[in-house]
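Whether sequence alone determines local backbone shape is best considered at the level of individual chains. The sequence in question and its structure tokens are set out directly beneath this paragraph.

===
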Amino acid sequence: GTDQSGTEQALGPLLPEETLRRWLGAGELAIRETRLSSPAGSSALDFFRWVRELEPDNERAVAGLETIITSYMSLAENAHAEKDYDTLQLMLERARSVADQHPQREVQRQRINELPDTWVATLLAEAESAIAAWNPERAQEALAEAGKIAPNDPRVATLLAQSGKLLQPGFRFRDALRSGGQGPRMVVIGSGQVNLSGAKGADTTVSITTPFAVGVYEVSRGEFNRYVQQTGRQPEGGCRSKETTGLFGTTKSSRTWRSPDFSQSDKEPVVCVSFDNAQDYVRWLSRETGHVYRLLSEAEWQSLASKVSGSDPCRVANIADRSVGGRDSFSCNDGYANTAPVGSFVALASGPYDIDGNVREWVEDCANESHAGHPGNQRARLTGDCSERLAMGRAWHSDKDESGVIQRRAFKTSVLSNTIGIRVAMTLPERPPGQ
């Protein structure tokens, strides 16, 4: 400035308040011009930092830092919309760097992290839905995007592993039921070959060319009760005890699946169910899930049974142990006089429990005394005496007369016995639903 005579005067230093006011104004202008944290010396971050060095609690400066953070978050959202993940990560890192200078560092960092957390949660939900719909491609697309947003999130790796195993041997799943709840636990079984045995005459080799799913457990009383409640259908009385008939008879009208002559929990396998009941049960499951549930074929069942191993029969199967008494019972003790809760014994390496012992299991094949004429594939053999169907394997009452795992018994389709139950299978879809 000049005095009245026109002589120039020297300016004194700015007062601190004026300095703060100028820096605050410059910082707010820099935000509008998107000079958020660069260039050095003229960025909004610099101006607000200088203010806080003089006045740490200056509210306008703290609010300015929050505005810078919000601006970087908006830029991250734009990058996310354009799937520009490098820019997205850069903007989030810059926002976090500014948050580190905010007096409430953790609060601001949490605000920033909510943004990618929300995106990742949405993508993980999409991936889980795709896995449930057996669509690995869609799942992996969502997970690839999630991995670019959160490279170190362990949930991404876990779901990627699941999607990679989808419908591959060993993959486990449960279908949702339309009426609520879930269906049986299932596991996928791969292809292979099996030597069909246990019949009169020569054995025959069959190729299992198409992977299929099988129940991890035999159908339990609790699961069967769900079907009865939903359909109103259930087996009538007249169930045999240990499959025997004769002059004095062991078929009683009071013996039913609910009261098979011994007490059972809901976790034990349902018994006193006929082949016809078993077929109706798998048809109900198919309607409830939209997938093709069925009984195993003999070839599929034998392919599983051929993998049963172990020298101690009571360790691997619920059979007639010494508690039953008699010279033909096995000398070991399996802990159960009748049926055991499903899954009580050692599982096969492929996943299913109780292929050997507990109850025999209906398969779809018609009765044939020999394997002669078998078509050589894994499908059920529907020629022969189809008024009778096969029940495979040993049961809780099986003694040394049934020393081998492979046991074939033929019964009329209406026969009920407290030694025969159900294991379900499922034909795998060729492609995900809706494609």
